[in-house]
Amino acid sequence: MPFSKLGLHADLVRATRAMGYTEPTPIQSQAIPLILGGADLLGCAQTGSGKTAAFALPILNRLLEHPRPGLRALVIVPTRELAAQVETALRDCGRFTPFKTAILIGGVGHHDQRQAIAQGAQVVVATPGRLLDHLKQGSVRLDRVELAVLDEADRMLDMGFLPDIRDILGRLPKQRQTLLFSATLAPEVERVAAFTLRHPQRVEISRPSSVAEGISQVVYPIGLQQKTELLIALLEATQIRSGVVFCRTKHGADRLARKLKERGFSIGLLHANRTQGQRTSAMEAFRKGRIQILVATDIAARGIDVREISHVINYDAPRHPEDYVHRVGRTARAYGVGDAITLMSPDEQPYLTAIERFVGIVFPRAMLPNFPYTAPPLLTAPKPKTFRDMNWGRFRRRFRR
After folding, report:
1. Range of the domain at 123
2. Nearest residue to 343 via CA among 239, 188, 223
3. Residue 374 within a domain
4. Which pLDDT value is given to residue 304?
5. Which of 230, 233, 288, 346 has its CA 20 to 30 A from that of 102?
């Protein structure tokens, strides 16, 4: 079904053509008609499936068909990077419309944000903390909001934003349309949906634990002390065009970025201790291909929307299986192809086992030829423990008594 058959305004269909989109993605083709019909929506789709446009286009459609002054649509997101991504999508989708969007995020001053609101922005994209700052200062009013979106709801809950979300929702008009989008439908997300949405329509495109089909996944077992050496050897051997390397901590990302720069790689750095200017500069340089590798913590796992990322490398294995799905979703965007590489030290094996159970795949293990391993890597995944394996020791102790 083409965009022209979804019920969208002609200027929005024209915008989709200008962006090079010929057909809507599954989440767009299913969600857009429901949103246009006025339903609350609970949407679940894997990262890179086009869900931002699935709510951006209906928002703009409402503004076009029922013009009124004031702030009328609110999009709440967990991170600054994702806010910038959503604001860009709204601007692209609305390129043939007169509407203005304001972005309210931390790390930058309040003045320009207040000015954008005062100049008549009808859509606001905001992170919870900064939005509450503006609400307390009286620079933003939500009494005319007709449509509210909670994007990446599972990530917002992981980051502890539930009290802020409750506060914000309590300030919105009761008569509104609410959309909740999430990459996973964990029980916590379902509970938020229960008090946020009214008789919602559900759109679930794929299993929450699924990884895009175009991603090739592999694990390189390696001793902890040799991780950086192996990463450098892999980067040199594979000639990665554009890659994201994920670290577990901010300090670990700093250390790794320094070592990679010392070895001559063009590196950008993205984590919560970087200023907004530094984060924006790193993302812009990465998008334009001026830097080859972006070293990041999980703050970037859902805020990077770069189509040409060829590789995602887990320098540190994620401790939560859902984070693995979000990390590797940075490659193979929009149903493309890409590679996901995980460097696994022996103490990280339990994390990998949990991830493999979650996604339903046992990843192939590999070793890099001619790399000077200090110990031979284990290239077979451990067998799952059986009931007998887990309990025999306890029963044997009882028997000895």
Report:
1. 3-204
2. 223
3. no
4. 66
5. 288
| Residue at a domain's end among 151, 178, 204 | 204
- Which long-range contacts does 3-7 make (Cβ < 8 Å, 24+ apart)? 6/32, 6/33, 6/36, 7/32, 7/33, 7/36, 7/61
DSSP 3-state of 38: coil
pLDDT tens string 201-238? 999 886 545 666 678 899 999 999 999 999 999 998 88
Q: For residues 363, 158, 280 and 328, what is the CA-based torsion angle, rounded to 10 degrees? A: 10
Distance CA 96, CA 112 (A): 24
Order across the sheet with 338-344: list the strands: 215-221, 338-344, 311-314, 243-246, 293-296, 267-270
| Same domain, residue pair 234 and 143 | no
User: Which residues sit opposite 192 in a β-bridge?
Assistant: none
Cα–Cα distance, 303 to 86 (Å, whole number): 9
pLDDT at 394: 43
Q: CB–CB of 183/330 below 8 Å?
A: no
Q: Vertex 66, ends 61 and 68: CA angle to 5°?
A: 115
Burial level of 288, CB count in 10 A (0-12/13-18/19+)?
exposed
Structural domains in the chain (count): 2
Q: What is the CATH number of the domain that holds 12?
A: 3.40.50.300
DSSP E strand boundaries for 255-374? 267-270, 293-296, 311-314, 338-344
Give pLDDT tens digits for 172-188: 999 999 999 987 787 88
Instruction: Identify the band that residue 386 occupies on the pLDDT scale cut at 50, 70 and 90.
Output: very low
351-371: average pLDDT: 91
Q: pLDDT band for position 332 (50/70/90)?
A: low
Could you tell me how far CA 359 lies from the centroid of its own chain? 17
Tell if the pTM clears 0.85, that is, is over it. no
DSSP symbols for 136-200: HHTS---TT--EEEE-SHHHHHHTT-HHHHHHHHHTS-SS-EEEEEES---HHHHHHHHHH-SS-
265 domain-assigned:
yes
Do 200 and 246 lie in one domain? The reply is: no
5-50 pLDDT, tens per residue? 999 999 999 999 998 887 899 999 999 999 999 999 999 876 667 8
Does 308 lie in the same domain as 253? Answer: yes
Share the mean pLDDT of the chain. 87
**Two tokens, residue 400:** 């000895």
R_g over Cα of the chain: 23
* Residue 342 placed within a domain: yes
